[in-house]
């Protein structure tokens, strides 16, 4: 038995009352599931409905007319969406009584609006002769021997994480909390497992 065709009832715009026509997509007409969810004929009607709703919310929420700062814990109307918000200490400090959703939206918009300017500033700063990144300053401050030791320790840590090296108890006192000690930094995977106390004594003995 063939399935019964789905009956699509006509919908009208909630703002102007015009009958909504099904939009045409490259794949065909607008699906019924999308058509039944539409509420407005175009973006202008949607914006008018939102503005009227905001005005209605602002009329319902009692606005406190104060000179200067608003009292802590009082109710204010969000200047963007019209929702009622409770005044917090941060709102009083910034003199901006907006809801959390509008504050986050404004922050995202500000980030993307200034992103090109910030990238241009960073490129210009990196091109200067006196600019050094933190990594370059760190590498220049370290002697070659310390950089060589750091690479050996990093290779040993990666080998432990991948399972190529297995930690064993301290070979001197049998402690469980051990560290890798390199007798020769040219062999990163040839390590001895010592606890922190025995490791410090070993380095003090070598340096002495």
Q: Into how many domains do the coordinates divide?
A: 3
Shape: elongated
Helix content: 40-55%
Q: Strand sequence of the main sheet, in spatial order? A: 1-2
Q: Please report which band the strand proportion falls in: under 5%, 5-15%, 15-25%, 25-35%, 35-45% or over 45%.
A: 5-15%
Structural class by sheet pairing and helices: mainly alpha
- Count of helix runs: 8
Low-confidence parts lasting 5 or more residues at pLDDT below 50? Answer: none
Our measurement of the CA-to-CA distance between the termini, rounded to an integer number of angstroms, reads 94 Å
Radius of gyration: 34 Å
List the defining traits of the structure above:
two-stranded antiparallel sheet; single chain; 6 strands; 208 residues; elongated
């Amino acid at each position: 038995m063939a399935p019964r065709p789905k009956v699509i009832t006509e919908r009208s715009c909630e703002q102007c009352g015009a009958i909504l026509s099904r939009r045409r997509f490259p794949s065909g007409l607008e699906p019924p599931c999308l058509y039944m969810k539409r509420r407005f004929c175009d973006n202008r009607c949607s914006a008018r409905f939102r503005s009227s709703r905001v005005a209605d919310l602002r009329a319902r929420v009692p606005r406190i007319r104060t000179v200067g700062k608003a009292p802590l814990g009082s109710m204010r109307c969000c200047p963007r969406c019209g929702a009622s918000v409770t005044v917090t200490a941060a709102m009083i400090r910034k003199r901006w009584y907006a809801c959390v959703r509008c504050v986050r939206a404004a922050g995202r918009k500000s980030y993307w609006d200034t992103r090109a300017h910030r990238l241009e500033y960073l490129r210009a700063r990196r091109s200067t002769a006196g600019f050094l990144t933190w990594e370059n300053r760190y590498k220049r401050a370290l002697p070659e021997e310390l950089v060589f030791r750091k690479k050996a320790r990093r290779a040993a840590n990666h080998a432990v994480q991948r399972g190529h090296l297995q930690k064993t108890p301290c070979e001197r006192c049998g402690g469980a909390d051990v560290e890798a000690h390199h007798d020769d930094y040219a062999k990163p995977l040839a390590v001895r497992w010592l606890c922190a106390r025995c490791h410090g004594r070993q380095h003090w003995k070598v340096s002495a």
